[in-house]
Amino acid sequence: MATDVEVPALGESITEGTLAQWLKKPGEAVAADEPIASLETDKVSVEVPSPIAGVLTEQLAKEGDNVAVGAVIARIDEKATAGATAAPSPAQAAAEATTNPAGAGETPALRGDSTAPVAEAEHDEGDHITTLSPAVRRAVLEYHVDPSSIRGSGKDGRLTKDDVIAAAQAQRSQAPQAKAPAAPVPSAPAPEARPAASTGERHEERVKMTRLRQTIARRLKEAQNTAAMLTTFNDVDMSAVIDARGRYKDLFEKKHGIRLGFMGFFVKACALAANDVPSVNASIEGDEIVYHDYLDVSVAVSAPKGLVVPVVRNADRMSFAEIEKSIANFGKRAKEGTLTADDMAGGTFTISNGGVFGSLLSTPIINPPQSAVLGMHRIEERPVVVNGQIVARPMMYLALSYDHRLIDGREAVTFLVRVKEAIEDPTRLLIDL
Which distant-in-sequence residues (6+ apart) come within 8 Å of 383 by Cβ? Predict the structure, then answer.
C-alpha cells in the first residue's frame, strides 16, 4: 500500500511553496525521514522527508510548481522493490514535454525521462549520487562538459550551475596549445573541429525568480513606498577595536571556541545607543508607536539564493561570546540552507555588513516593520587629523537609514554618534557610558 507524502508546515503565515528540486527519482529506495524533495518558501528552503521507508513510486508535482501546505506531492510504497522502473507521472511527462519536446541534441541521461538513466555524477567518495537540476542540465549542454567528472559544491555534493561554469573554464585553460598534427589513431578518428566562437556572439538566458528573490523584491519596494526613508553617515576610527582584537583574540577563541569578530562590538554599541535613542529600536503599527525594551538584531547574511536576515534575540543581554556564536551559527546554516522561518521572524533593528564584500559606502534599505538599519562597510587606511597631525588610521564609513516618520534627524545623528563613540572607545561598552 502506498503512503502519501504531503507538503509539511512551512512556518507561520506561509501557506505554500515552490517545488525547487526532486532529490529522489521514481524507483529509488528511500529511508524513513530521508529528504525526497526541496521546497522554496518566501523565506527559506525546506526539505520534504519521507514518512516511511520504501520506494518512491510516483511524483505528483514537477519542479517549479507551487504546492500548498498539506498537498500530496509523491507516494512511497514500503513493499515495492527498489530499482523497478516506475511509469512517469502526468507532472513528469508535462515537464519533459515542455523542457525538451523531441529530446534532440541530448543524451538520454540529460533528457531526464524515467525510461532512460537520469544524469548523475558519481564521486570517488563511495556511492554518492548527484541529480542534475534543470538549470544545471542547461549549463552542461551549453558548455559541453561531462557532469560525471565534476565535483559538486552544493548541498550533499549536488552540482550547481557555478560548478559547471568553473569546470568549463578550467577545461579551456588546460587545453593544449596548437602543435604539429599527430598521426591519426585508426581506432578513434579525430573529432570534427568546430569553428571558433565569434567575439561578437551574444547570449541571453531567462531564469524564473526564486520565491525568496521575489519576496526580497516585494518587501524592499514596499519599504520604499511606505517609509519616509533617509540616510545619515559618519565614519569611525577602528584602531581601538582592532587593537583589542589583536590582544585578546587567541585567549577569546581558546576560552569560547569562537573567533572574536567586529560584529560583537557593533551589536553591543547599538544596544548602548538604543538606550539613549529608543525610537531607533521602535516601530509603527497603525497610528501607534511600539517601543521595545529589548534589542532583537536582524543580522544580514549571504545565502546561496539571496540575502537572509536571521535574528539574534535579546542581543542587548548577551555577552560578546554569545553574540559571536549566534552569528557564526546563522552564517553556517545560511550556507547550508538549513535556516528556518522562525529564525528570521521578528527583529527590531538590522545590521548589514557590506564591508565583507568590499563596499566602501551604501544606503541600506529598512527591513519593515523596523524603523532603522545600520550599514557597516570595509575598513581602509585613510589620512585623518589627530592632535593637529595628519596620520593614517583604519577608518570605516557607517550609514544609518531610518524612517523619518518616526525618527527625527537629531535622533538619528545622535544614535550614530553614540555608536561611533563606543567603537572608538570600547571601554564605554563595559561601563555603560
Answer: 390, 391, 392
Interior angle at CA 339, CA 335 and CA 345, nearest 5: 135
In CATH terms, the fold of domain 220-431 is Chloramphenicol Acetyltransferase (3.30.559)
Please identify every residue annotated as catalytic.
Answer: 404, 408
Please give the grid coordinates belonging to residue 307: 540575502
Q: What is the pLDDT of residues 267-295, one digit of tens each?
A: 999 999 999 999 999 999 999 999 999 99
Helix, strand, or coil (residue 47): strand
Quick check: helix, strand or coil at residue 266? helix
- H-run or E-run covering 166: helix 161-173
Spatial separation of the C-alpha atoms in residues 147 and 140, rounded to whole Å: 7
Spatial distance between the Cα atoms of 267 and 264, rounded to a whole number of angstroms: 5
Grid coordinates belonging to 169 = 573554464
**119-173 carries CATH number 1.10.10.10:** no
Phi, psi of 293 (to 5 degrees): -95, 20
Cα(126)–Cα(176) distance, integer angstroms: 32
Q: What is the pLDDT of residues 108-153, one digit of tens each?
A: 333 333 333 333 333 343 333 345 665 676 677 777 778 878 887 7
- The whole-angstrom distance between residue 339's C-alpha and the CA centroid of its chain comes to 10
What's this model's pTM, rounded to 2 decimal places? Answer: 0.60
The grid cell for 126 is 563511495
Residue by residue, DSSP assigns 213-236 as HHHHHHHHHHHHHHS-EEEEEEEE
